[in-house]
Automatic annotation (TrEMBL):
<dbReference type="GO" id="GO:0005634">
    <property type="term" value="C:nucleus"/>
</dbReference>
<feature type="domain" description="BRCT">
    <location>
        <begin position="5"/>
        <end position="102"/>
    </location>
</feature>
<dbReference type="InterPro" id="IPR036420">
    <property type="entry name" value="BRCT_dom_sf"/>
</dbReference>
<dbReference type="Pfam" id="PF12738">
    <property type="entry name" value="PTCB-BRCT"/>
</dbReference>
<feature type="region of interest" description="Disordered">
    <location>
        <begin position="470"/>
        <end position="599"/>
    </location>
</feature>
<feature type="compositionally biased region" description="Basic and acidic residues">
    <location>
        <begin position="490"/>
        <end position="500"/>
    </location>
</feature>
<dbReference type="Pfam" id="PF16770">
    <property type="entry name" value="RTT107_BRCT_5"/>
</dbReference>
<protein>
    <recommendedName>
        <fullName>BRCT domain-containing protein</fullName>
    </recommendedName>
</protein>
<dbReference type="InterPro" id="IPR053036">
    <property type="entry name" value="CellCycle_DNARepair_Reg"/>
</dbReference>
<feature type="domain" description="BRCT">
    <location>
        <begin position="714"/>
        <end position="827"/>
    </location>
</feature>
<feature type="domain" description="BRCT">
    <location>
        <begin position="103"/>
        <end position="193"/>
    </location>
</feature>
<dbReference type="GO" id="GO:1990683">
    <property type="term" value="P:DNA double-strand break attachment to nuclear envelope"/>
</dbReference>
<dbReference type="GO" id="GO:0035361">
    <property type="term" value="C:Cul8-RING ubiquitin ligase complex"/>
</dbReference>
<dbReference type="Pfam" id="PF00533">
    <property type="entry name" value="BRCT"/>
</dbReference>
<dbReference type="GO" id="GO:0006302">
    <property type="term" value="P:double-strand break repair"/>
</dbReference>
<feature type="domain" description="BRCT">
    <location>
        <begin position="339"/>
        <end position="411"/>
    </location>
</feature>
<feature type="domain" description="BRCT">
    <location>
        <begin position="605"/>
        <end position="691"/>
    </location>
</feature>
Length: 832
């Protein structure tokens, strides 16, 4: 960059600064001088501390905690970190805005990524999702690179970075996967090469909990005391946060006179004043969401918080949005619907994190229990390893991480336990480190607690909603997923197993399940033999109806990833595709040949899910090429769990993917249709390729056409209300059976040696047609045989008919899409 006066780098730009702890007045003065030196202007804030939004083009802030953030987003005024100015000066041109946003929901906003020895399918998804969450990608490693995604230190990029001692993190792709799934950025430490902890340390070993900075001053909605202010000398403390603000303290606070006097004095000395009028106040401090003051102030677009929020402002002398910390906002008086009957315990969270969870559970309306018993309904845990976790498995108690309770509270309704982000536990991470990052959903709050309002405030609320929508759309994080898997599709190895027939030699069992984390990539991070070939990314076990906005956004990203990769390749291509040589240099006076127009991809017309597709087995390069050919024809191969137009299979197969999508009523085409598309580069009429497999129809005793029609009528509720248990040690694992059962709305539970009675006793007189059946999927191993009698006794005590069956019963029922039973499926008959 030419370092000269009069440069127009920031020409026509008008900046305003938002001071914070790491953006001090001294730093602001230095940056302001640089801005003016290179053609820009700097505006001062107004007397009341607000920003002159009508005249500025950029806001420089290292935080989104300032009152006009939502409004500035609505007005499309970029809000950038101070690093953006430095980066622009270093480049000699204005840097991109997106990677420098201070929005914490853009979890990779300061990541400059480069990939080393990562297979293309994984690489494309990592790059696409990282960029969607605020990061940047470069094929080359430079001093600006912050992360290199690699499987080993053998790649030239990694060796070069290590030799030159670049300050960048060399991480396994598993780190990105876990971040995508959670929708939060976790510590890279356990994933760092050359000796990543996740590969050498047992997941069961203890982990020291890390304190989340987002819990500071926000662990309780009803604080017992006010923390001392940041300044140790109260005489020197001059509160500016209250300047020219009118504050109303609601009667539902039941505040003692002495405390009210202290607060009134602090507000007055800080340039503000107290008021008893909800219409004229700027801020309302109250406890519950059902008071007249709360409803009126919220409808008028006032800032509403609770005592915990007010104490936080006093302690830090800085404004904070009460919607950004769950316990800074007034509570629902009767909790969140559905939580009243819940008994919830906590494990693996310590210190303030544990206190925060206890208070959040109580605010949601559930009962918090310090110890866990068989009558507990949920266990919230930061890891899936502890005595409580083992007991939860034995007692069929739902085990989730804190994101479930946080997002249920934020969205004002209980979130589905089938969303995989709530049951995801990275092996060497204590999830307490990402606690407290969930924002309240303002649109849901308005709908439930303060609908309507005067006409003059509609625009204000509309602007706020638009700002929130824009932020959510840009972040693609809150929403996850909320969220599939919360993000990145899981690796293909799992899908390879699921994409083979769900049978063994005797046509009775599911394929062997690999002994590995369900979140690993399709890449050889552990010295494994690399399998390549099968066509689709691993399905999430989350039904499509339960997927969050984030999951859908990241699902779309996985479809877009090939397009992103193709664009990057085209961008790098030279005109005419010629290599650069010394003879190619032309005189400056000669006119250069026009660049080729970059081809654009057609809109996606057809979305398909493939299972059992044999063309790509052991030929990864052919798979990548074929996927691009199909995409060029408007055909997108999507991952299981996403909406699709057709399910593609070579014949009737009992794979998880086939049975789950059949359960949705998907039309099944022969894989010949895809072959024809690839071979002829034309898209034939799908109706001419409806799967016909008379041999397997006879074998399974069904008509595929009839099964599809029934599935469409059942609408995923074939097994609704039917309890299906599965032995914990069943051959090939429980996950596949759970995915199939839950795709048909069954009540799926695991049954183990320590499982207690989970069947609600009914009155025999209420069963006019006899006792309802309850099923246990089992094999005939000695360990599982020991469970049969106890299961049968439990069922009979609940006035239900026990049926201990082979897993083939479930597979056949779902394939036929008709609930039926034959004694041949009883384990005592099946395994003779």
């Amino acid at each position: 960059m030419a370092d000269q006066e009069g440069s127009s780098l920031f020409g026509l730009c008008v900046f305003a600064f938002v001071p914070s702890g790491d953006l001090t007045d001294t730093i602001i003065d230095e940056l302001s001088q640089s801005i003016v030196k290179y053609g820009g202007q700097v505006c001062s804030r107004k007397r009341d501390g607000s920003l002159p939004l009508a005249t500025i083009t950029h806001i420089v802030s290292n935080t989104i905690e300032f009152p006009q953030y939502d409004t500035s987003t609505t007005m499309m005024i970029p809000v950038v970190k101070s690093k953006w100015i430095s980066a622009s000066l270093a480049k000699g041109k204005q840097a991109q805005i997106r990677p420098y946003t201070p929005d914490p929901r853009m979890i990779f906003s300061d990541v400059m990524l480069s990939c080393a020895d990562i297979p293309d399918s994984d690489k494309d998804t990592i790059i696409g999702a990282t960029m969607a969450m605020g990061g940047m990608y470069s094929d080359h490693v430079t001093k600006l690179t912050t992360h290199i995604c690699a499987l080993s230190t053998d790649h030239p990029k990694v060796r070069m970075a290590m030799e030159k001692k670049h300050k960048c993190n060399i991480v396994l792709p598993h780190w990105f996967d876990d971040c995508f799934r959670l929708g939060k950025r976790i510590d890279e430490g356990p994933y760092l090469l050359p000796d990543p902890e996740i590969l050498r340390v047992s997941p069961g070993r203890s982990i020291e909990p890390q304190q989340s900075p987002y819990l500071d001053g926000a662990i309780s909605a009803r604080p017992d005391y006010m923390s001392p202010p940041s300044s140790p000398n109260e005489r020197e403390l001059q509160l500016t946060v209250f300047n020219e603000k009118k504050i109303m303290l609601s009667k539902d606070l039941e505040m003692r006179g002495r405390l009210r006097d202290i607060l009134a004095s602090l507000v007055s000395k800080g340039g503000g004043q107290l008021t008893d009028n909800a219409e004229e106040c700027d801020w309302l401090i109250c406890r519950y969401r059902d008071t007249k003051e709360y409803i009126l102030a919220s409808q008028l677009g006032k800032t509403v918080g609770n005592m915990s929020w007010l104490f936080y402002l006093i302690q830090h002398n800085a404004w904070s949005n009460p919607l950004h910390r769950l316990l800074h906002y007034p509570e629902p008086r009767n909790g969140i619907p559905g939580f009243q009957d819940m008994r919830i315990s906590v494990s693996n969270y310590g210190g303030e994190a544990r206190i925060y969870l206890e208070n959040l559970i109580k605010s949601a309306g559930a009962t918090f229990t310090k110890t866990m018993k068989a009558d507990n309904t949920h266990l919230v845990t930061a890891r899936d390893n502890s005595e409580k976790c083992e007991a939860a498995r034995d007692w069929n108690i739902h085990m989730v991480n804190h994101l479930w309770i946080e997002e249920s509270y934020a969205k004002c309704e209980m979130q589905s336990l089938t969303v995989s982000k709530y049951t995801h536990f990275p092996p060497r991470t204590n999830l307490g480190e990402i606690m407290g990052q969930t924002f309240l959903d303002e649109k849901r709050l308005q709908t439930l607690y303060f609908p309507g309002g005067p006409e003059k405030t509609t625009l204000t609320l509309g602007r706020k909603r638009k700002a929130l929508d824009m932020t959510d759309e840009n972040s693609a994080v809150e929403g996850q997923a909320s969220g599939a898997s919360a993000g990145r599709p899981v690796r293909k190895e799992f899908d390879i197993m699921r994409d083979t027939e769900v049978e063994d030699v005797d046509a009775t069992e599911l394929p062997a399940q690999p002994n590995r984390r369900s979140t690993e990539f399709a890449t050889p991070a552990r010295g494994r033999h690399v399998r390549s070939g099968k066509e689709n990314e691993t399905p999430s076990t989350v039904p499509s109806s339960g997927r969050s906005a984030k999951d859908k956004a990241l699902g779309r990203l996985s479809t877009m990833a090939p397009d992103i990769a193709l664009y990057e390749k085209e961008k790098k291509a030279r005109p005419e595709g010629r290599p650069t040589t010394g003879e190619d240099k032309e005189p400056k006076s000669e006119k250069r040949p026009a660049k080729k127009a970059r081809p654009t991809l057609p809109e996606v017309d057809v979305r398909v899910i493939l299972t059992g597709f044999k063309r790509w087995v052991n030929d990864k390069h052919r798979e990548d090429a074929d996927r691009k050919k199909l995409r060029d024809m408007g055909i997108a191969v999507v991952q299981d769990g996403q909406p699709c137009d057709y399910l593609i299979a070579p014949q009737l197969v009992r794979t998880v993917k086939f049975l789950r999508n059949l359960s949705k009523g998907a039309i099944v085409l022969s894989s010949t249709w895809v072959e024809e598309c690839l071979d002829t580069k034309q898209v034939p009429d799908p109706d001419d390729y409806i799967l016909k497999d008379h041999e397997n129809e006879k074998r399974f005793g069904l008509k595929l056409e009839t099964s599809i029609r029934r599935a469409q009528e059942n609408n995923g509720r074939l097994l609704e209300g039917i309890p299906i248990y599965c032995t914990a040690g069943i051959k090939n694992g429980i996950e596949s059976y759970q995915a199939i059962a839950e795709a048909n709305s069954a009540l799926f539970m695991v049954y183990g040696p320590k499982s207690g009675s989970t069947i609600k006793v009914t009155n025999p007189e209420d069963d006019e047609l006899g006792p309802e059946p309850v099923y246990l999927l089992s094999t005939s191993t000695p360990e599982e045989k020991k469970l049969w009698k106890r299961f049968e006794d439990m069922a009979r005590k609940g006035n239900m008919e026990p049926r201990v069956v082979a897993s083939d019963w479930l597979l056949d029922v779902v394939m036929k899409q008709e609930v039926s039973f034959d004694k041949k499926y009883l384990v005592t008959n099946f395994f003779i």
